[in-house]
Amino acid sequence: MPVAALTTLGCKVNQYETEKIAEDFARAGFTLTDFDAPADVYVINSCSVTESADKKSRYLARKAARTNPDAVVVMTGCHSQMAFDAGETVDGATLLVPNHEKMATFRRVAEARPDILAYSSSPATLLPPRGSRTRATLKVQDGCEHFCGFCSIPFTRKVLDSRPWRELVTEAGEIAASGTREIVVTGVCVGAYNADTGSGGPDLAGLLLRIADQPGVARVRLSSIQPIEVSDALIDAFASHPNLCPHLHLSCQSGDDTILSAMNRPYSTAFFKDLVCRLRAAIPDLALTTDLIVGYPGESCEMHENTLAFAREVAFQRTHVFRYSSRPRTHAETLADDVSFEEKKRRHATLQAIVDETNHTFTSRYIGETLPVLVEGKHGDGGTVNGHTPNYLKVTFAGPRELMGQIVPVRLTGVTDSGDAVGEIALSPADLATHVAAAPKHRAVEFQPLAMAG
After folding, report:
1. CATH number of 3-126
2. What angle do CA 227, 228, 229 make, to 5 degrees?
3. Domain residue ranges in the chain
4. Which of 23, 78, 172, 253 is the most buried (most CB within 10 A)?
5. Model pTM above 0.70
6. 370-437 has which CATH code?
7. HSE toward the beta carbon, residue 137, CA cutoff 13 A
8. At what angle do helices 204-212 and 165-177 cross, to 10 degrees?
9. Percent of the chain scoring above 90 in pLDDT
10. In CATH, what number does 135-364 get?
11. Mean pLDDT of 350-372
12. Which class for 108: exposed (0-12), middle (13-18), buried (19 or more C-beta within 10 A)?
């Protein structure tokens, strides 16, 4: 039986697409293995959002080729798209699949190397059914047309394309039926859901409510969204439905108005802070996370200080801090990269110190409270597990690994230096035993063999 190994870099959209590609290989009778293991086919779902993502994408292609020189090494995703558009090759990759053909990756492999395919007359099984026993990603749309100054994504995912809402609701129900407790709704520009169809169907808020109402769905979490796409209807949805997790990742990028304008971000810091006030007033226990870039071309020390003050005032729960790196084909690529590497490192460190402090402060508010935690994995080698609360607090506590996939009440007792919470199960031994016995039994998904054309 042939063997395939897949790996993902970058966003949750890529994660979802890798899972679907893996299902295609499973249907064809492939055994799926870890990317470090020997395989007949390697698939790298690449990323190009930063220079380091480009480097890692290329490294993985070379690594796969070294592991098995006779393997088919497929690269798809945004780094592949950039190379494809430029007419370039990627060292180690035998096949580049552009994004618009990504979901046909298996068929491209079948065309290139029919000798390694073994079609099974009985369905193959892929476990776990959607890549995680506790959380699954649901891609609802593709494409972005914002053309922010630093971002190459509109060049690699060019067309807005929303999936039909009924199809998404059905898929959400299937995910829940498999035993998965949390669904992460994602897209390249998720706030633009249904803006391209003209169908009169639900917008993002309406879609989330329909998914949250599906039997067995315990939690629905929204991935990154643009601030200007947070509608009153979306705020009302989060305020009213208990299954919508009170956590929003608002992509901010800078806390200085001059830099926001240079980035072609269509809002000001005043707009952002007003939105934050409205969200926090409407949604109890809301956690806000974000992305911030330091060292953008033209960013002065004063502009950086403005971002530091902004981060203190907004007090995000968690922040991804990036040092600016030039991306091909973007407007920023035409600008002088006038902030030195050492200065970018310094600015990164000063901003990271502030966001670490605000994260610690946010988590500390909940010490002594009992919160529902979705148990996602074991922590270390001992009898310790971890998971997340609805508002995205990561919590570590003593408990059996059989709790994986269960939502259990945990009393928070402290905060680590990294800003994560520690706690203890708020259940009697008898109730804990009941939870363990009731742990979801994840249903194996059977895939019918692919029907190959011609």
Report:
1. 3.40.50.12160
2. 90
3. 3-126, 135-364, 370-437
4. 78
5. yes
6. 2.40.50
7. 19
8. 30
9. 77
10. 3.80.30.20
11. 97
12. middle
